[in-house]
Amino acid sequence: MFEYAPAPESRAIVDIKPSYGLFIDGEFVDGTGKAFKTVNPATEEVLAEVAEASDADVDAAVKAARRAYTRVWSRMSGSERAKYLYRIARIIQERGRELAVLESIDNGKPIKESRDVDIPVVAAHFFYYAGWADKLKYSGFGETPLGVAGQVIPWNFPLLMLAWKIAPALACGNTVVLKPAETTPLTALLFAEICQQADLPPGVVNIVTGAGDTGRAIVSHPDVDKVAFTGSTDVGKAIARAVAGTNKKVTLELGGKAANIVFDDAPLDQAVEGIVNGIFFNQGHVCCAGSRLLVQESVADEVMERLKRRMATLRVGDPLDKNTDVGAINSAEQLAKIRELSDIGEAEGAERWSAPCDLPANGYWFAPTVFTGVSQAHRIAREEIFGPVLSVLTFRTPSEAIEKANNTPFGLSAGVWTDKGSRILSMANRLRAGVVWANTFNKFDPTSPFGGYKESGYGREGGRHGLEGYLKGEDS
Ligand code: NAD
Hints:
binds nicotinamide-adenine-dinucleotide, Aldehyde Dehydrogenase, Chain A, domain 1, oxidoreductase, 2 domains, alpha/beta, Aldehyde_DH_dom, Ald_DH_N, Ald_DH/histidinol_DH, 14 helices, Aldehyde dehydrogenase family protein
């Protein structure tokens, strides 16, 4: 492999303030609680101090959302709401480079991903739901909004998860209080500025920053009508318990342990690209990552050889370098979790191989890693690692592949690689996964519903289905 010269994207386009308040009722206000720091995971540089919203702050945000809901947003016609959503979508496109650079700095993901995937899909999501705002009567879910939505999101796709939450909620006439994850608050705060720039009526979108306690305050607030959560299965279960017995409507998008299944008739070079994209895209911090490779025994050796050769060419390093394939792990805590599970994999007898690469001295890094000789009982085959770590299992027949693929408490996504269309259809029917990709992986489109079976959660985001979680239903 030849060397690439550094090709850093300039960070001059972003203006990170030393400290940030909360966005409540259309204004940035000081929080009444403490503050926390957000760091660049690629360098450990402190980027800014961010307010940690207290119960009182959350209450103020919910009150602002309620006022905006009753007085303005729920009374506005769908076509008027659509104008705001279109305006937000266009501003996101116009400020796309700024958003992409800020996302890469705060999250650690490679600029080529934030620039070419996250931000364009965010804009597409707002465009898509802007289109629904005046057509709700054709949705099949009624036209009546729920009220105030409390939304809590994770750190792996900070702005994209915000878009998945806010765009359908607003299109349906709800107002929102959203909390970004504590390690990645900055693009949500820039989004708040975009709401101001778009002249969105005050209180329609409120952004409160903080950690688990702030999330708990949103979820348990009595005047929140709808809870939308994306994050870990453990926290999802706690939220389900917290809202049980209330009238709150809930959608949960939780963890995954997807099987990426390669048959012996698959085009192997393309399959190897799909395996790499499936587990090393976004450092493997992807709920629907193809973290379990199931490869047909007759081609297993060949696939592994090609995969290792391909992995050795992945460039790991500075997220702002346009040639970087794999960026930084999002936090010290996440890095410790990836290390722990990988060590357990080795201790349980699986064979570990990591791509040879020089990791930067500062920041949080983990080399792309693959485990072979993995059995279904191993923890690395069962638990979500949420990092650039692939577990490889083999199978002989389609039925064995299905049995192994479905042998998981999760059910978010799966991939099938084969030359036969009939096999794709039969596998897709039998896989207990919300999304099944065929001869591709990790493709996202706002028109397509996304969501899980079993412990991967309930409710769907995206597409017409994504409206259901924000409307009262046909007969109300
Ligand atoms: P996490 O559950 O630790 O945190 C998610 C969010 O919940 C954060 O904003 C956090 O501050 C908040 N939170 C923590 N405790 C809370 C509580 N008790 N009440 C309310 N809010 C609380 O998850 P994470 O580590 O940030 O994200 C990784 C997880 O997210 C993975 O399991 C991944 O699979 C999942 N995920 C799922 C999807 C999906 O669409 N299914 C998408 C992305 C990520």
